[in-house]
Amino acid sequence: GRSPDGRVVVTVEDEGPGVPDYALPRVFERFYSLPRPGGAGRSTGLGLALVREIAHLHRGDAALENRPGGGARATLWLPPA
Question: What b-and-e string marks burial along 29-47, b requiring 16 or more CB atoms within 10 Å of the CB?
């Protein structure tokens, strides 16, 4: 979609457990990782850091938040072409 100022907006939502409140300020830090649901190992902690860095290189941004009804919402904003 598009925001009122013309930026391209991509939003992805899930219905999982969301992100613990204490972790939300850190999820875009390089190498920051949380245990995966179900006891699986941790990730490298680079995925969201790379997403935000690439967005910034294109004069955009990225955010992650918990949805009010449960789950998480990731949003990517990019300037118009």
Answer: eeebbeeeeeeeeeeebee
Contact 70, 63 (CB under 8 A): no
Average pLDDT over every residue of 31-36? 86
Token pair for 59 = 């004069």
Question: Which pTM was predicted?
Answer: 0.84
Backbone phi, psi, residue 58, to 5°: -105, 20
Q: What is d(CA 71, CA 65) in angstroms, rounded to the nearest whole number?
A: 9
Interval 48-72 mean pLDDT: 96
**Cα-Cα-Cα-Cα dihedral of 65, 47, 4, 58, to 10°?**
150
The 3-state secondary structure of 7-52 reads: CEEEEEECCCCCCCCCCHHHCCCCCCCCCCHHHCCCCCCCHHHHHH
